[in-house]
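User: Sequence in, structure out. Go.
Assistant: Echoing your sequence, followed by the C-alpha coordinates.
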Amino acid sequence: MTTDTTSFEQPRISLSRLAPAVNRAMVALDGALEIDSSLRDLVSLRASILNGCAYCIDMHTLDAKARGESEQRLHAVAAWHEAPFFSARERAALQLTDAMTLVADTHVPREVFASASAQFEEAELAQLIWAIVVINAWNRIAVTSRTLPGEYHPG
Protein backbone atom coordinates (compact mmCIF):
# COMPACT_ATOMS: atom_id res chain seq x y z
CA MET A 1 0.00 0.00 0.00
CA THR A 2 1.37 3.40 -0.95
CA THR A 3 0.78 6.33 1.27
CA ASP A 4 0.56 9.97 0.23
CA THR A 5 2.13 11.84 3.11
CA THR A 6 2.63 15.11 1.22
CA SER A 7 -0.36 16.79 2.84
CA PHE A 8 0.67 15.80 6.37
CA GLU A 9 3.18 17.50 8.59
CA GLN A 10 6.49 15.73 8.17
CA PRO A 11 8.43 14.33 11.14
CA ARG A 12 9.83 17.11 13.30
CA ILE A 13 12.68 15.46 15.15
CA SER A 14 14.34 12.08 15.52
CA LEU A 15 14.53 11.46 19.23
CA SER A 16 16.08 8.04 18.72
CA ARG A 17 18.95 9.58 16.74
CA LEU A 18 19.42 12.66 18.93
CA ALA A 19 19.00 10.96 22.32
CA PRO A 20 19.98 7.34 21.67
CA ALA A 21 20.67 6.39 25.30
CA VAL A 22 17.24 7.58 26.41
CA ASN A 23 15.61 5.83 23.44
CA ARG A 24 17.40 2.58 24.34
CA ALA A 25 16.15 2.94 27.92
CA MET A 26 12.59 3.46 26.68
CA VAL A 27 12.83 0.40 24.43
CA ALA A 28 14.19 -1.60 27.38
CA LEU A 29 11.32 -0.44 29.59
CA ASP A 30 8.85 -1.49 26.91
CA GLY A 31 10.58 -4.85 26.57
CA ALA A 32 10.51 -5.47 30.32
CA LEU A 33 6.71 -5.61 30.42
CA GLU A 34 5.25 -9.02 31.23
CA ILE A 35 1.62 -8.84 30.17
CA ASP A 36 -0.59 -10.93 27.90
CA SER A 37 0.00 -9.71 24.33
CA SER A 38 -3.71 -9.67 23.43
CA LEU A 39 -4.56 -7.52 26.44
CA ARG A 40 -1.58 -5.29 25.79
CA ASP A 41 -2.69 -4.80 22.18
CA LEU A 42 -6.15 -3.67 23.31
CA VAL A 43 -4.75 -1.32 25.96
CA SER A 44 -2.17 0.11 23.57
CA LEU A 45 -4.75 0.65 20.85
CA ARG A 46 -7.20 2.31 23.26
CA ALA A 47 -4.63 4.72 24.71
CA SER A 48 -3.43 5.55 21.20
CA ILE A 49 -6.99 6.32 20.11
CA LEU A 50 -7.54 8.59 23.11
CA ASN A 51 -4.22 10.36 22.48
CA GLY A 52 -4.84 10.72 18.75
CA CYS A 53 -1.60 8.95 17.85
CA ALA A 54 -2.08 7.80 14.26
CA TYR A 55 1.30 6.05 14.12
CA CYS A 56 0.57 3.98 17.24
CA ILE A 57 -3.01 3.22 16.17
CA ASP A 58 -1.63 1.86 12.91
CA MET A 59 1.14 -0.11 14.62
CA HIS A 60 -0.98 -1.68 17.36
CA THR A 61 -3.78 -2.57 14.96
CA LEU A 62 -1.31 -4.30 12.66
CA ASP A 63 0.38 -6.10 15.56
CA ALA A 64 -2.96 -7.28 16.97
CA LYS A 65 -4.15 -8.52 13.57
CA ALA A 66 -0.84 -10.35 13.08
CA ARG A 67 -1.44 -12.10 16.43
CA GLY A 68 -4.94 -13.16 15.32
CA GLU A 69 -7.14 -10.47 16.87
CA SER A 70 -10.46 -10.00 15.05
CA GLU A 71 -11.11 -6.84 13.08
CA GLN A 72 -14.50 -6.58 14.78
CA ARG A 73 -12.92 -6.27 18.23
CA LEU A 74 -10.22 -3.91 16.97
CA HIS A 75 -12.82 -1.59 15.46
CA ALA A 76 -14.87 -1.74 18.65
CA VAL A 77 -12.00 -0.62 20.91
CA ALA A 78 -12.90 2.99 20.05
CA ALA A 79 -16.34 2.46 21.60
CA TRP A 80 -15.60 -0.42 23.96
CA HIS A 81 -18.19 0.84 26.49
CA GLU A 82 -20.94 0.00 23.97
CA ALA A 83 -19.51 -3.20 22.49
CA PRO A 84 -20.29 -6.70 23.81
CA PHE A 85 -17.04 -8.19 22.49
CA PHE A 86 -14.87 -7.77 25.58
CA SER A 87 -14.54 -9.86 28.73
CA ALA A 88 -14.93 -8.37 32.21
CA ARG A 89 -11.15 -8.50 32.56
CA GLU A 90 -10.62 -6.65 29.27
CA ARG A 91 -13.27 -4.08 30.21
CA ALA A 92 -11.53 -3.41 33.52
CA ALA A 93 -8.21 -2.96 31.69
CA LEU A 94 -9.77 -0.64 29.11
CA GLN A 95 -11.50 1.37 31.82
CA LEU A 96 -8.20 1.74 33.69
CA THR A 97 -6.52 2.73 30.42
CA ASP A 98 -9.12 5.46 29.89
CA ALA A 99 -8.70 6.78 33.43
CA MET A 100 -4.90 6.74 33.37
CA THR A 101 -4.65 8.21 29.87
CA LEU A 102 -7.03 11.02 30.83
CA VAL A 103 -5.49 11.34 34.31
CA ALA A 104 -5.76 15.15 34.42
CA ASP A 105 -9.54 14.80 34.06
CA THR A 106 -10.18 11.59 35.99
CA HIS A 107 -7.47 11.29 38.65
CA VAL A 108 -8.14 7.51 38.32
CA PRO A 109 -11.31 7.13 40.41
CA ARG A 110 -11.34 4.67 43.29
CA GLU A 111 -14.06 2.55 41.61
CA VAL A 112 -12.00 2.21 38.41
CA PHE A 113 -8.98 1.02 40.37
CA ALA A 114 -11.17 -1.32 42.45
CA SER A 115 -12.65 -2.81 39.28
CA ALA A 116 -9.19 -3.50 37.89
CA SER A 117 -8.02 -4.89 41.24
CA ALA A 118 -10.94 -7.31 41.22
CA GLN A 119 -9.95 -8.67 37.80
CA PHE A 120 -6.17 -8.82 38.15
CA GLU A 121 -3.84 -10.25 40.74
CA GLU A 122 -1.62 -7.58 42.26
CA ALA A 123 1.47 -8.45 40.18
CA GLU A 124 -0.62 -8.51 36.98
CA LEU A 125 -2.16 -5.17 37.88
CA ALA A 126 1.31 -3.70 38.34
CA GLN A 127 2.28 -4.91 34.86
CA LEU A 128 -0.95 -3.48 33.43
CA ILE A 129 -0.30 -0.08 35.02
CA TRP A 130 3.24 -0.05 33.61
CA ALA A 131 1.93 -1.06 30.16
CA ILE A 132 -0.48 1.90 30.23
CA VAL A 133 2.31 4.24 31.34
CA VAL A 134 4.60 3.00 28.56
CA ILE A 135 2.05 3.34 25.74
CA ASN A 136 1.15 6.83 26.91
CA ALA A 137 4.84 7.77 26.83
CA TRP A 138 5.23 6.31 23.32
CA ASN A 139 2.09 8.18 22.20
CA ARG A 140 3.48 11.46 23.47
CA ILE A 141 6.81 10.81 21.71
CA ALA A 142 5.17 9.90 18.38
CA VAL A 143 2.64 12.76 18.44
CA THR A 144 5.22 15.37 19.43
CA SER A 145 7.78 14.21 16.86
CA ARG A 146 5.03 13.68 14.21
CA THR A 147 5.95 10.07 13.46
CA LEU A 148 4.00 9.20 10.33
CA PRO A 149 1.81 6.09 10.13
CA GLY A 150 2.06 3.70 7.23
CA GLU A 151 5.72 2.72 7.51
CA TYR A 152 5.36 0.07 10.24
CA HIS A 153 5.31 -3.65 9.47
CA PRO A 154 4.75 -6.27 12.19
CA GLY A 155 7.54 -8.67 13.04
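User: And one key feature?
Assistant: Residues 122-145 form the longest helix (24 residues).
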